[in-house]
């Protein structure tokens, strides 16, 4: 009888470290995820070239570490922290354009239009030309998109991205897929108030 109690106690001791290892593994995964999220919010200023159907754009994350500075041809982009804001300044053709983003705002992407010399608001979607609209669901799944809609009479589809998705990475991921003819960023037009 004493032997059985000893065996039971030994089994309990052996199981305890496994439970601790499981809890430790879960804690490490949580910390790694939190660290990755923090890194994404404070990554170095990185500017990517991409284009809409009309013109090229310079795209950057609103979570860039500050201070930082990047040159893209004749465009100089600087980010700094001022009060409760991450401030982006673009110096181009003798003009300075400024964009203020709240430090507690969720991560998203913004664009600068060198041709118009101003910041533009990216829409949450991409314009995709496909050989076959039947592949749209595969395209949406490839970028973990929020949805998609084909407009066969217009010759393209719109793929809706998740709010935190890097639109330039999504463009690169989609343009390499079979049946894709063209992929472009989309911008939001000016907001008009009815009179």
Short key terms for the protein model shown above:
4-stranded antiparallel β-sheet, alpha+beta, about 30% helix, about 200 residues, 12 strands, elongated, disordered N terminus
Give a summary of the structure in a few sentences.
With 195 residues, the chain is of the alpha+beta class. Helix content is 29%, strand content 38%.
General description of the model:
- This protein has 195 residues and is α+β, with helices and mostly antiparallel strands.
- The protein has three helices and twelve strands; from the N terminus they run H-E-E-E-E-E-E-E-E-E-H-E-E-H-E.
- It has helices spanning 2-41, 136-142, 167-175, and strands at 47-51, 56-61, 68-72, 75-82, 85-92, 95-102, 109-113, 118-120, 122-130, 147-151, 156-160, 180-187.
- The strands form three sheets. Strands 1-2-7-8 form a four-stranded antiparallel sheet, with helices on one face.
- Strand 7 (109-113) and strand 8 form a beta hairpin.
- The longest helix has 40 residues, at 2-41.
- The termini are far apart.
- Mean pLDDT is 80; it is low at 3-40.
């Amino acid at each position: 009888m004493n032997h059985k109690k000893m065996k039971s106690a030994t089994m309990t001791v052996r199981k305890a470290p496994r439970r601790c290892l499981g809890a430790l593994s879960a804690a490490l995964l949580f910390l790694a995820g939190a660290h990755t999220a923090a890194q994404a919010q404070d990554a170095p200023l990185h500017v990517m070239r991409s284009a809409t159907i009309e013109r090229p754009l310079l795209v950057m994350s609103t979570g860039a570490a500050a201070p930082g500075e990047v040159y893209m041809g004749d465009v100089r982009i600087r980010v700094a922290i001022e009060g409760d804001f991450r401030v982006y300044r673009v110096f181009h053709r003798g003009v300075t354009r400024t964009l203020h983003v709240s430090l507690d705002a969720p991560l998203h992407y913004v664009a600068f239009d060198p041709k118009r010399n101003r910041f533009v608001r990216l829409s949450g979607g991409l314009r995709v030309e496909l050989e076959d609209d039947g592949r749209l669901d595969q395209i949406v799944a490839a970028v973990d998109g929020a949805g998609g809609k084909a407009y066969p009479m217009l010759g393209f589809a719109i793929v809706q991205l998740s709010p935190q998705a890097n639109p330039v990475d999504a463009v690169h991921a989609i343009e390499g897929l079979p049946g894709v003819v063209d992929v472009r960023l989309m911008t939001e037009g000016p907001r008009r108030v009815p009179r």
